Amino acid sequence: MAIITISRGSYSKGREVAEKVGSRLGYAVVSRDVLLGASEQFHIPEVKLVRAIHDAPSILDRFSHGRYCYLAYIQSALAERAVNDNLVYHGLAGHLLLKGVPHVLKVRIIADLEARVAAEMKREGLSQGQARELLLRDDAERRKWTQNLYGVDPWDASLYDLVIHINQLTVDDAVDFIVQAASRECFQSTPESQQKMEDLALACRVKAALVKDDCVDVAVTSQFGNVMVYTKQGDRRSHRLEDRVKPLVKRIPGINHLEVRTGQPFPPEAC
Amino acid sequence: MPVIIVSADDFQQGREIAHRVAGVLGYRFLGRDLLARVAQEKQVSQQDLARALDEPPGLLSRRSRRQRLLSEIEAACLEQLLEDNVVAYGLAAHLYVRGVSHVLKVRIINEPEQRANILAQTGNIPLERARKLAQRQTGGERRWSQDAYQLDQTDPSLYDMVLSLGTLEQDKAVEIICDMVGYRKFQPMTYSRKCLRDKALAAQVRLALMERFPDIRVEANDGTVVAYIQSLKKDQRKKQEQVRQMAGELPGVRHVEVHVIRDYFGQAAQSSR
Fold first, then answer.
1. Residue range of the domain that includes A243
2. Is residue A192 part of a domain?
3. Which pTM value belongs to this model?
4. Quick one: which of A215, B9, B66, B266 is 20 to 30 A from B144 by CA?
5. Are residues B164 and B205 in the same domain?
6. Contact A158/B168, CB-based, under 8 Å?
7. Domain check: are A183 and A202 in the same one?
8. With an 8 Å Cβ cutoff, are A177 and B176 in contact?
């Protein structure tokens, strides 16, 4: 009983690995479904969510907060899925979207650029130069995305529990290692780790609701249903936030207590 | 049977894991003990050899001497790796043994916070200082490998697998590495052994010539050696002949080819005199 996030570049065979791991363990495999779920739940066109999770934020995005809002919806949709456990998520930033949950096995699959170029040429019918250029641009975009939104480099191995290089090792070898690692005791969900997952899902739900209500630039944490909403703004604006936060206690099930903390830095575990 | 190369962000932890892997598989452990032998044979200080492997380049460090020491280690290490059933650690072999299919390369890392905790405990320093130290060490590691081998040794694509000790215990890491060795793709084949032999020969030739030609680059293929040197146009013939003669005397070298890369800076300096 674990959650496995697989981070991958395009044409790195990460999808294949994820699907095989899912079928071997009997876990649900999600990637695009999360976006579809968020699109239905929050009534946002899927294409906007795809852009939010793929393209790096532009300077304008930094002012409009659009991307941060979409990301809150995506995170909430993923957390809803992860609460049910037994999940393989492959795609961008799974390890960052589910941070702080102990039974998440974070894997990164990498492959040599030449092998990726060959795969893209075969699939898209491109020339070598075009395929290489597209892949390099895609990699740079993903790197910029993670750096801008989370301040970390997705290529940094210390973000993952396992990094597997598909070259000498095949897809099946990678599946073996992931299944083996997922069976470790530390990745089995316990009542405590499940509680953390539920708290994360609740915090994400609250944040998505606030963001939908135009309350951007907030961070949310939850502990046993006690929800804290953090804002860096001072007291004057906090009354407005409190007015919007109060109705959420009735709207969102699972909240025991809800509190607004103003003028404080966001805690690192907040979503 | 395969060769295993372990690299780690924490020297002691990596050494322990490499040792245990060697013990479980019954392989020979090749570690820093090799430096004592190189020091004795080549009449250099063992401390200098260790420093060349550990310390990032300083502003005033002598690059050519450092490169020479690293070449001594490289040549000695590659010679040892020609025998199978070896676990190598602490000799930077992951940076110069590339493209050899029966060499399994694994990196062991810690989560940044965990690494800071280890440094705080071992160095008896406050956690905040340990965090900064960990960051500095990672930067130093990067600078060192980029300066010495033009590669970033923290880049996961240099390895077959990277294992984080943040969640996996040492036992599990040892188990995974031992499992990997059994995979068919890591078994030595005639071609992969030849690749390793070529690398060893190229390292020997480079070492023999680098005092006279510090910028020399050498490739080898089944006894045929291709050397790339820098030279002014007027010295070209003389230098090519020297390389041919010096390399040709080394055991295992059948044919020497010398390519000259024009030294434009030297040429400009000469013409302005």
1. 198-262
2. no
3. 0.83
4. B266
5. no
6. no
7. no
8. yes
Lay out the sheet containing B255-262: strands in order across. Answer: B217-221, B224-231, B255-262
**Facing residues of A169 across strands?**
A166
Q: Do A181 and B172 touch (CB under 8 A)?
A: yes
Q: ipTM score here?
A: 0.80
Which residues form the domain of B31? Answer: 3-186
Q: What is the CATH number of the domain that holds A258?
A: 3.30.70
b/e sequence B182-213, b meaning 16+ C-beta within 10 Å: ebebbebeeebeebbbbbbbbbbbbbbbbeeb
Report how many domains make up chain A: 2
Instruction: Name the residue facing A168 among B155, B176, B185 (closest C-beta).
Output: B185
Residues of chain B contacting residue A108, judged by C-beta atoms under 8 Å apart? 156
Cβ-defined contact of A162 to B180 (cutoff 8 Å): no
CATH code for position A132: 3.40.50.300
- Considering only alpha carbons, which residue of chain B is nearest residue A187? B167
How many other C-beta atoms lie within 10 A of the C-beta of residue A268? 9
How close A53 gets to chain B, by Cα (Å)?
24
Structure token pair of residue A88:
């393989």
Q: What is the CATH number of the domain that holds B212?
A: 3.30.1340.30
What is the per-residue pLDDT across B73-102, written as a single tens digit (0 to 9) for each? Answer: 999 999 999 988 999 999 999 999 998 989
What's the whole-number mean pLDDT along residues A245-267?
82
